[in-house]
Design goal:
The complex is a heterodimer of chains A (113) and B (116). Chain A is 0% helix and 57% strand. Chain A contains no helices and eleven strands. In chain A, strands 2, 4, 5, 6, 9, 10 and 11 form a seven-stranded mixed β-sheet that branches. A four-stranded antiparallel β-sheet of chain A has the order 1-3-8-7, with no helix packed on it. In chain A, β4 and β5 form a beta hairpin. In chain B, the strands form three sheets. In chain B, strands 2, 5, 6, 10, 11 and 12 form a six-stranded mixed β-sheet that branches. Chain B has a four-stranded antiparallel β-sheet with strand order 3-9-8-7, with no helix packed on it. In chain B, strands 1-4 form a two-stranded antiparallel ribbon. Helix content of chain B is 0%, strand content 52%. Chain B is mainly β and 116 residues long. In chain B, a hairpin with a 2-residue loop joins β7 and β8. Chain B is globular. Classes of the chains: A mainly beta (113), B mainly beta (116).
């Protein structure tokens, strides 16, 4: 089974802090994703990566950056956290095959005070 | 850009009954993939069922089946013999066949409650 592991289930940070959310997958997947989940809005793509050191902006990249130094790890960075970034963050990965689903981590509930 | 709409924020069903969750999407493409994902209260999103647009036959996975109407751009999920464990958020998602990064566009979700 594919395992996607997010480093924290719950995280509380303060406004202005630099926040790192880590995600690791164990299936050698090329593609990795960071989503933000808010009630009524579903999942919105923040950034994705299709290879090591490669990244593409999703629908809502403002205020976020990402890093993919190794194939199995994809990090989401909030450079200067703000209260409107309080949300659930989901990481996912998938292979390059077109009909393959994305596999998700458990999510990180991030609160910015 | 593609959009996915789930018009039912919440649904409820009696245990053992059948429920249908709606999903519509907007696209100008002819080849694409559609997915239903389930997110139980434990929060890990898991795949329920997938459909390739070029296949006319509706996908089925045990108690889960879809009604794919390509011309109407509709992709509903039917859950038969509902069980308490089916209670979850359900998300419909679209993926273009031209999408090199395998990106998904998600609907807003439907919360399904199952009554004992």
């Amino acid at each position: 089974d594919v395992k996607v592991t997010q480093s924290s289930r719950y995280l509380v940070k303060r406004t202005g802090e630099k926040v790192f959310l880590e995600c690791v997958q164990d299936m050698d997947h090329e593609n990795m994703f960071w989503y933000r989940q808010d009630p009524g809005l579903g999942l919105r793509l923040i950034y994705f990566s299709y290879d090591v050191k490669m990244k593409e902006k999703g629908d809502i990249p403002e205020g976020y950056s990402v890093s993919r130094e190794k194939k199995e790890r994809f990090s989401l960075i909030l450079e200067s956290a703000s209260t409107n970034q309080t949300s659930m963050y989901l990481c996912a990965s998938t292979s390059g095959q077109p009909n393959q689903p994305q596999h998700f981590g458990d999510g990180t509930r991030l609160s910015i005070l | 850009a593609q959009t996915v709409t789930q018009s039912q924020p919440e649904m409820s069903v009696q245990e053992a009954e059948t429920v249908t969750l709606s999903c519509t999407y907007d696209t100008s493409e002819s080849d694409y993939y559609l997915f239903w994902y389930k997110q139980p209260p434990s929060r890990q999103m898991i795949l329920v069922i997938r459909q390739e647009a070029y296949k006319q036959q509706n996908a089925t996975e045990n108690r889960f089946s879809v009604n794919f109407q390509k011309a109407a751009k509709s992709f509903s999920l039917k859950i038969s013999d509902s069980q308490l464990g089916d209670a979850a958020m359900y998300f419909c998602a679209y993926r273009s066949s031209n999408n090199a990064g395998n990106m998904l566009t998600f609907g807003g979700g439907t919360r399904l409650m199952v009554k004992p």
